[in-house]
Design a protein that fits this description.
- The chain is built from 16 helices and 39 strands.
- The chain folds into six domains: about 5-105, Rossmann fold (3-Layer(aba) Sandwich), CATH 3.40.50.20; about 110-130 and about 210-335, ATP-grasp fold, B domain (D-amino Acid Aminotransferase, Chain A, domain 1, 2-Layer Sandwich), CATH 3.30.470; about 135-205, ATP-grasp fold, A domain (Dna Ligase, domain 1), CATH 3.30.1490; about 335-455, ATP-grasp fold, B domain (D-amino Acid Aminotransferase, Chain A, domain 1, 2-Layer Sandwich), CATH 3.30.470; about 460-475 and about 495-575, Glycoprotein, Type 4 Pilin, CATH 3.30.700; about 590-660, RNA polymerase II/Efflux pump adaptor protein, barrel-sandwich hybrid domain (OB fold (Dihydrolipoamide Acetyltransferase, E2P)), CATH 2.40.50.100.
- It is globular.
- By secondary structure, the protein is an alpha+beta fold.
Length: about 675
């Protein structure tokens, strides 16, 4: 049976690029869709054709079922691939495709419905003999009885939205005093993300490990499991590092979990690629519990592809076209080890709040056993409209140790200039002793956060930034006037040039004497070092007594220079150029937005007295909430925004005046 001639990809970002790549390999014409924010995005450039579907707001573009169906019909597409996120697990979208005569590349709507509601999903798989975590839900808790039900389930417990996944709306509650606030926050996020604030609570498994099984099923009755992925390295219930296989499981445990996952898929008549997620204690891997089934391709699917040799996207398309699986369960073998790291636009040193900006330059790693799934291009604008994931860096080796080494080197060679990322944090996490030993659990990152996150700017970067400034000041041309050379020479004194540089909240005075080929550099009161520097394309090469350092380099607006090396990147500007304080008011005056986004909740009114630390507003960006608090005791003398309003980075939200200034 031949596959489709044209497929529309109803998504954006790296997953759209990834799907287009497999469609091209199959000889299938690809159709991209894009919002106004993505008019020049990578997936638009790589598709055979592309259709505008609406403004930047996701609800009016990537979540608009009529717009996407119309685009598919207008371009002659026979099928639609939803990717992940957006409409990928929306049964209404799958039905709309069917009604329009389009094939939805995914499971039938009935399976999406059955697994999309976590409460009903648990009941369904439990009836099929799959073990589930003890808990309760809104459906069986009487009004006003949440606290009593929580006491019966026992603390700590986990609140989860019934209607969605991806960690959104999940809250870990350690004791009864935290319950009310957690319920309020979880319901608000669930309603905003999924349009449904129904919650369930589950017993929280101690020392939990998150292991999921990839399943693949055709329309002819074959259901396979393709081994597991370890997804225990998480923050705020969002996966950070994933790997296959898990070091925790032996062959017998792998087969047992795989069989349970296949039964879960069969219980709802599943067709296509899907993932069954389990939770288990690190101390007892024989006892595992069903968490949920994701009725779509997972972000972390590349690690399964690398250890099985299968192209999951290709199989999704072939299965949707009616082809039977040509594999049997005994044909599935896991060879070697693969590990994936997710690169996000976020600032780990400031609580992982989303960053943004224009990508000035991109360098992505390559080489044997290294794969990058990315949508990054020079000029790409990272805003607050969509998820902050920029790329995935994946490494494969014959064993786990070699895969870890390759991934670390690949991240060290990753440079994204113009936007702050979590790459340095990822390298720190991979270097953790327990991570390297495979002693993982879902709370490890939170326990080690202080060790993994640092706001310090190494002095070597200030040296490099100063040498870059010096190189920029050098005169060019066939004839150079000696007086144009920036030596700082003056009669009766040692020459030199002083640069007052700022990187975020860190400032330094850097004194440089000499030329780029032979200079002495002193950062603040540190000992001077001998340095030489030169540029080679987008590289800045710096030689010091102790060795040779290479940085990726890009120039930004207002004389800002971005430097990246060894997975770390920093933006440097002159001290008189104010880099954003991002809402961290130190005293009276404006309280500004820490990120571009939307005001979700305004918790105070003008004229209201507040204490330092009182929550004022909640700003949301890229599906993350950030609570803005009062910097001092005082009164809200101005309130500049309302709920639902879009705000820019550093935009004034409110003004707090000290209590004694109140009239």
């Amino acid at each position: 049976m031949s596959v489709f001639s044209t497929v529309l990809v109803a998504n954006r970002g790296e997953i759209a690029v990834r799907v287009i790549r497999s469609l091209r390999a199959l000889g299938v014409r690809s159709v991209a869709v894009y919002s106004d924010a993505d008019a020049d995005a990578k997936h638009v450039r790589e598709a055979d054709t592309a259709v505008r579907i609406g403004p930047a707001e996701a609800a009016k573009s990537y979540l608009s079922i009529p717009a996407i169906v119309r685009a598919a019909l207008d371009t002659g597409a026979q099928a639609v691939h939803p990717g992940y996120g957006f409409l990928a697990e929306n049964a209404g979208f799958a039905r709309a495709c069917e009604e329009a005569g389009l094939v939805f590349i995914g499971p039938p709507p009935s399976a999406i419905d059955a697994m999309g509601d976590k409460i009903h999903a648990k009941a369904t798989v439990s009836a099929a003999g799959v073990p589930v975590v003890p808990g309760a839900s809104d459906l069986d808790i009487p009004e006003g009885g949440f606290a009593e039900a929580a006491a019966k389930v026992g603390y700590p417990l986990l609140l989860k939205p019934s209607a969605g996944g991806g960690g959104k709306g999940m809250r870990l509650v350690h004791e009864e005093s935290e319950l009310d606030a957690a319920i309020e926050s979880a319901r608000r996020e669930a309603k905003g993300s999924f349009g449904d604030d129904t919650l369930l609570m589950e017993r929280f498994v101690t020392t939990p490990r998150h292991i999921e099984i990839q399943v693949l099923a055709d329309a002819h009755g074959t259901v396979l499991h393709l081994g597991e992925r370890e997804c225990s390295l998480q923050r705020r219930h969002q996966k950070i590092i994933e790997e296959a296989p898990s070091v925790l499981l032996d062959e017998a445990q792998r087969a047992k979990m795989g069989s349970a996952a296949a039964e879960a898929a069969r219980s709802v008549g599943y067709v296509g690629a899907g993932t069954v997620e389990f939770i288990l204690s690190a101390h007892d891997p024989d006892e595992f519990f069903f968490m949920e089934m994701n009725t779509r391709l997972q972000v972390e699917h590349p690690v399964t592809e690398m250890v099985t040799g299968l192209d999951l996207v290709s199989w999704q398309v072939r299965i949707a076209a009616g082809e039977p699986l040509t594999l049997r369960q005994e044909d599935v073998h896991l060879e070697g080890h693969a590990i994936e790291a997710r690169v996000y636009a976020e600032d780990p040193a400031r609580g992982f709040i989303p960053t943004g900006g224009t990508v000035l330059a991109v360098h992505e790693p390559s080489g044997e056993g290294v794969r990058v799934d990315s949508w990054m291009t020079e000029g790409a604008v990272i805003g607050s409209n969509y998820d902050p994931m920029l790329a995935k860096v994946i490494a494969y080796g014959p064993d786990r140790a070699s895969a870890l080494r390759k991934l670390d080197l690949a991240l060290a060679d990753t440079a994204l200039l113009g936007v702050g990322t979590n790459v340095a944090f990822l390298r720190g996490l991979l270097a953790d002793e327990d991570v390297r030993a495979g002693r993982l659990d879902t709370e490890l990152v939170d326990r080690r956060l202080d060790e993994l996150v640092s706001a310090d700017v190494p002095a070597e970067f200030f040296v490099a930034a100063a040498m870059d400034r010096l190189l920029s000041l050098q005169p060019s041309g066939s004839t150079v006037d000696p007086w144009d050379v920036p030596t700082g020479w003056r009669l009766g004194a040692t020459g030199g040039v002083t640069f007052r540089l700022r990187c975020g909240a860190t400032q330094a005075v850097v004194r440089v004497e000499g030329t780029p080929a032979d200079a002495t550099v002193k950062v603040d009161d540190s000992e001077p070092v001998r340095v030489s520097a030169r540029r080679d394309g987008d590289l800045l090469e710096v030689r010091q007594t102790q060795g040779f350092l290479r940085y990726r380099h890009a120039s930004g607006p207002e004389r800002t220079v971005w430097l990246a090396g060894a997975g770390r990147s920093f933006a440097f500007a002159d001290q008189e150029v104010r880099l954003s304080a991002r809402g961290e008011a130190a005293g009276a005056g404006p309280v500004t937005s820490p990120m571009p986004g939307t005001v979700l909740v305004v918790k105070v009114a003008a004229g209201e007295e507040v204490s330092a630390g009182t929550p004022l507003l909640i700003v949301e960006a890229m599906k993350m909430e950030h609570t803005v608090t009062a910097p001092i005791d005082g009164v809200v003398s101005e309130l500049s925004v309302r709920a639902g309003q879009q705000v820019a980075l550093d935009e004034t939200l409110a003004v707090i005046s000290p209590t004694e200034e109140k009239q």
